[in-house]
Specification:
Blueprint lengths: L1 H26 L3 H14 L4 H14 L3 H14 L4 H14 L2 H14 L4 H10 L15 H22 L1
Helix pairs in contact: 1-2, 2-3, 3-4, 3-5, 4-5, 5-6, 6-7
Length: 165
C-alpha cells in the first residue's frame, strides 16, 4: 500500500513538473513544445482538468483542430467549472477559431467567477466593449447592421477627432 501511494505522488510531481514546463513554453509562444509536455502530463494524470484545458489551447494553436480543442476544453469545464482560467482558455480557442461572440461569452463567465482575475481582465480589454447591433432585431452579421455600424464608427471617430482640436 505504501509503495502505491509513493508511486502516485511521484506521478503527480512528475506531471506537475511537465505542466510547469508547458506553461513556460506557452508564455513564450512555443505551443508545439508545450503540447508535447502536456501530452506527457496527461499520460500520468489523464483526467486533470487544468492539463486538459491547456492541452486544448495548444491543440488549437498547433494543429488548428478547433473542434477537438473545444471538445477537450469543455470536458475540462465539466470536471471543474469554477476555475476562471479554464473559461479563459476556451475563450482563447474560440477567438483563434474566429468565433468572437463565443469567446467574449467565455471571458465574461470567467469574469463573473472572479472579478480580480488578471488574465480575464486582459482578454476582455483586448476584445473591447461590444455595442449592441445598430438594428437590434437583426443579427450582428446582417448587411444592414454591418454597414450602419461602419458609418456609426466613422462618424464617432470624426466627432472625437474634431472635439480634440
Amino acid at each position: 500500500m505504501g509503495q502505491v501511494l509513493e508511486q502516485k505522488c511521484d506521478g503527480t510531481m512528475e506531471s506537475q513538473t511537465l505542466y510547469d514546463l508547458a506553461l513556460r513554453k506557452i508564455n513564450a509562444n512555443k505551443f508545439r513544445e508545450a503540447l508535447n509536455h502536456l501530452i506527457e502530463a496527461l499520460r500520468i494524470a489523464p483526467s486533470n482538468p487544468v492539463y486538459l484545458s491547456y492541452f486544448g489551447l495548444c491543440l488549437a494553436h498547433v494543429e488548428r483542430d478547433y473542434s477537438r480543442a473545444i471538445r477537450v476544453s469543455k470536458q475540462a469545464l465539466r470536471v471543474f467549472s469554477k476555475d476562471p482560467m479554464l473559461h479563459v482558455n476556451l475563450g482563447k480557442i474560440y477567438k483563434l477559431k474566429g468565433s468572437n461572440a463565443l469567446a467574449h461569452r467565455q471571458f465574461l463567465r470567467a469574469w463573473e467567477l472572479n472579478k480580480r482575475h488578471p488574465v480575464t481582465a486582459v482578454e476582455l480589454t483586448r476584445m473591447g466593449i461590444r455595442r449592441p447591433p445598430f438594428i437590434r432585431f437583426l443579427s450582428r452579421r446582417h448587411w444592414a447592421n454591418r454597414c450602419l455600424g461602419v458609418v456609426r464608427a466613422t462618424l464617432e471617430r470624426r466627432l472625437v477627432g474634431h472635439r480634440q482640436c
